[in-house]
Design a protein that fits this description.
70% of the residues lie in helices and 2% in strands. It has 423 residues and is mostly helical. α10 (190-208) packs antiparallel against α11. GO terms for molecular function: molecular adaptor activity.
């Protein structure tokens, strides 16, 4: 078995050659072979693996590694810098500002080497960029422009629709359709899609408004379980229903997330997959299923807010991609388990819903990027579209016979995602 030093050296060699995937494997081997008491040595390895994952654009996993490195050695400047970089990529300048400052504080105050001078210059630039991004972020929070969700791709903002929103216009059509024979044309009417999406969204919104903090000191809360499920179901049915009804929404939503505890709030896909398998093995489905559901659904909301409020296209792409990574990996592990045990997020229809949202985020990311980056995004867009079309065709475009579905379900989770892929 190779020594820690040998594995690290091989990792460094691969990293220098820009072979980040193999470098990551070597650093992982070195971490697993290391003495847990060697905190400083482990911090370097975690920071190095974080650098690989940053280069591979796996920002949540990179964030988890950098966080571990800073915990192991709070004096390691590079670890704080890698953490800051991941936080920037995840659209969190309020966090990266602190991390860039800690990276600067960890450098010597005098007699810096040329390498440390370079680090200081880089970290100072990172801090300034984070401060600028944070100012823009705060301005966006306090001034949310009106937008029109009636338009395709309409973004989620505060608005007054005056009874002319898509769901308002669909209501009388749905009332008529209910009294007509359930022909294929009837069942595939887009009115059903927006109607049920809005119904889910408003049910979730009304639940969120019920959450309350009972004791600020202990954090005790009361509320209704299921709110985040409803609002994300609505979004996946038709993203146009995503809107911010008032200035209290984001605060109430965050309280709801805190109320529905035991989800993974900071970890990346690698940690979540590992811990979910262990939690299911030791604690069973009742402890695992809701935690995974809230984690994935919170990532969907994070993506929608990143796109609609802050125009952070790459952040949305990251969280949709992570959602699919976790679901696909765990689904392979639990392929023989029932829907009742593992949960609805592992159903093909749910996966298709996320894939449709992911394609839209990739398209927006493509339009906002340029050069080599835009070509990479376009390549990912084509690949994911081909995967979605193939998988929907393999299911014959139909939910399983014993799954109860309402009018509009087939359109929301099969026809529309497939159309998005072809578009």
């Amino acid at each position: 078995m190779a020594s820690v030093a040998a594995l690290k050296a091989e990792g460094n060699s691969f990293f220098g050659a820009k072979n980040f995937a193999d470098a990551e494997k070597k650093y992982t081997g070195a971490i697993e072979a290391s003495d847990s008491a060697d905190s400083k040595g482990l911090a370097v390895l975690y920071a190095n693996r974080s650098a690989c994952r940053l280069s591979l654009k796996r920002y949540l996993d990179a964030n988890a590694d950098a966080t571990k490195a800073t915990d192991l050695d709070p004096t390691y400047a590079k670890a704080h810098a890698r953490l800051a970089t991941s936080e920037d990529q995840l659209g969190a300048p309020h966090k990266s500002k602190e991390s860039w400052q800690k990276a600067l504080d960890a450098l010597p105050k005098t007699n810096l080497t040329p390498a440390e001078e370079t680090q200081k210059t880089q970290y100072t630039a990172g801090l300034r960029a984070a401060i600028s991004a944070l100012a823009q972020f705060e301005n966006t929070k306090h001034y949310i422009p009106k937008a029109d969700p009636r338009q395709p791709g309409g973004t989620p903002f505060i608005w007054q629709g005056n009874g002319r929103m898509p769901w308002d216009l669909a209501a009388p059509i749905v009332a008529r359709l209910r009294n007509e024979p359930k022909t294929p044309d009837n069942l595939r009417s887009s009115a059903w899609v927006i109607h049920h999406a809005y119904e889910d969204w408003m049910n979730g919104l009304n639940m969120i408004r019920q959450v309350k903090v009972l004791d600020e000191r202990t954090g005790a809360m009361t509320g209704i379980i299921g709110a985040i499920t409803h609002i994300t179901n609505g979004i996946m049915r038709d993203p146009r229903v995503m809107h911010i009804p008032d200035n209290e929404f984001i605060g109430q939503y965050n309280k709801q997330k805190a109320f529905q505890t035991k989800a993974w709030t900071e970890a990346g896909p690698e940690i979540i997959i590992k811990e979910a398998l262990e939690r299911q093995r030791t604690q069973g489905w009742d402890a695992t299923r809701p935690a995974l559901s809230i984690t994935i659904r919170a990532w969907i909301m994070r993506s929608m807010m990143a796109l609609g409020l802050y125009q952070q296209h790459q952040v949305a792409v990251e969280f949709y991609r992570n959602s699919l990574t976790v679901i696909r990996t765990l689904r392979d592990h639990w392929i023989l388990e029932s829907k009742a045990d593992r949960g609805v997020i592992f159903e093909k229809s749910f996966i298709f819903g996320i894939q449709g949202l992911y394609l839209d985020a990739l398209m927006q990311s493509y339009h906002s990027s340029n050069g080599a980056e835009s070509l990479e995004v376009l390549s990912n867009l084509f690949k994911e579209a081909e995967v979605l079309i193939r998988e929907i065709n393999e299911t014959s475009g139909q939910p399983r016979e014993h799954d109860p579905v309402d009018p509009g379900f087939l359109s929301s989770f099969f026809l529309y995602p497939k159309g998005e892929a072809y578009a």
